[in-house]
Write a structure and sequence with these properties.
It is built from eleven helices and eight strands. It is an alpha/beta fold. An eight-stranded mixed β-sheet has the order 7-5-6-4-1-2-3-8, with helices on both faces.
Length: about 325
């Protein structure tokens, strides 16, 4: 291992931070922490567990782990904010120059982390690739494969597996990335904008043995909408007139085409089709374009809202072994504490 310094007594901060979102993973907390301890033996590390509003006994299990191991830091959200917000909290509170992100369901294998760390001598970000993925073929693997091809084609950042949470980052490339909504899967795209060099390596993937998967086909529309936003931010954020201008031209020419077809239908004596072409088609197209455009504008505005005010897209109820974390008590007015 050459990427990380050996553990030293009295260090102000660890050499490695592991960020783990946790949502209803009561049965996996203890085995996961044991696996991390075994995989990272000999390294100076911390793990930040972010309890994303779990409804089971995950909070109790996490507090028990933190009580006996000071390397375990725990953040409890007041409610479920989603994986992106949980990862953001872990990244923002990580102290080490190298960060690892992974899932809490034990499908990612902590034993892969040391080998990924060794690759940081040749790159800035190491992304895991679940080459032999142990998930349902139609419900999970096929949609994921289609999404990976689509994201790679549109972003020009070619990865086999955008959905794999197991990744290793040099801190300077990830700490300033604004993550909202469901944007965590697009982090590799963001870091390339900052000049990071990426390597993708096959990692082990285990079948889930405890708990239930939190993902299904319902997230596909979210991925497509987020990908639209990423594409806009990549190509049109500085010159949005190019985007909105081309959309405007498309609307104008579509309207002209519909109008011409309507005139032709009217000349042929088909009054009803002429009326439909003259009203319904341009109205539907304009409404659809307007909805997408308003969504993109709203995405940009919410980013500005959080970044200008330096607000995080989550609230922490309480924390364990994590000095400096702002909780509900810290954010409350003095008279209410």
């Amino acid at each position: 291992m050459t990427a990380l310094p050996p553990p030293q007594a009295g260090l102000a901060s660890p050499a490695l931070s592991v960020c783990v979102p946790v949502y209803d993973e009561e049965g996996n907390v203890e085995p996961l922490h044991a696996a991390l301890c075994a995989a990272l033996e000999g390294l100076d590390w911390e793990v930040i567990y972010v309890n994303d509003g779990s409804r089971d006994g995950s909070a109790r299990m996490l507090d028990a782990v933190a009580a006996r191991d000071p390397r375990a830091r725990v953040i409890h959200f007041v409610r479920n904010y989603g994986q992106t917000a949980a990862l953001t909290a872990g990244i923002q509170h990580a102290q080490a120059p190298v960060l690892v992100t992974m899932d809490a369901d034990l499908q990612n294998d902590p034993a892969d982390i040391p080998g990924m760390l060794a690759l940081l001598d040749r790159c800035d970000v190491v992304c895991g690739w679940r080459k032999d993925r142990q998930d349902a073929a139609l419900r999970r693997k096929l949609p994921s494969r289609i999404a990976n091809h689509l994201i790679s084609a549109l972003s020009k950042v070619y990865l086999h597996d955008y959905g794999c949470t197991l990744r290793v980052y040099k801190r300077e490339y990830i700490r300033g990335i604004p993550l909202y909504g469901e944007m965590h899967r697009f982090i590799p795209i963001y870091v390339t904008w900052a000049g990071a060099r990426i390597i993708e390596v096959p990692v082990r993937h285990h079948a889930r043995t405890r708990g239930e998967s939190k993902y299904g086909l319902a997230r596909i529309p979210k991925v497509l909408l987020d990908l639209t936003t990423v594409k806009f931010l990549r190509d049109f954020y500085v010159t949005p007139i190019y985007f909105f201008g081309w959309v405007g031209f498309l609307m104008v020419f579509s309207g002209l085409g519909a109008g011409a077809a309507g005139i032709a239908a009217f000349a042929a004596g088909a009054a009803l089709p002429a009326t439909a072409l003259g009203v319904v088609a341009p109205l539907l197209m304009a409404t659809g374009v307007l909805e997408i455009t308003l969504g993109i504008i709203a995405e940009v505005l919410i980013r500005m809202h959080y970044e200008i005010q330096q607000k995080a897209p989550y609230r922490i109820r309480e924390a364990r072994n994590l000095p400096g974390a702002r909780t509900l008590v810290d954010d409350a007015p003095a008279g209410l504490r």
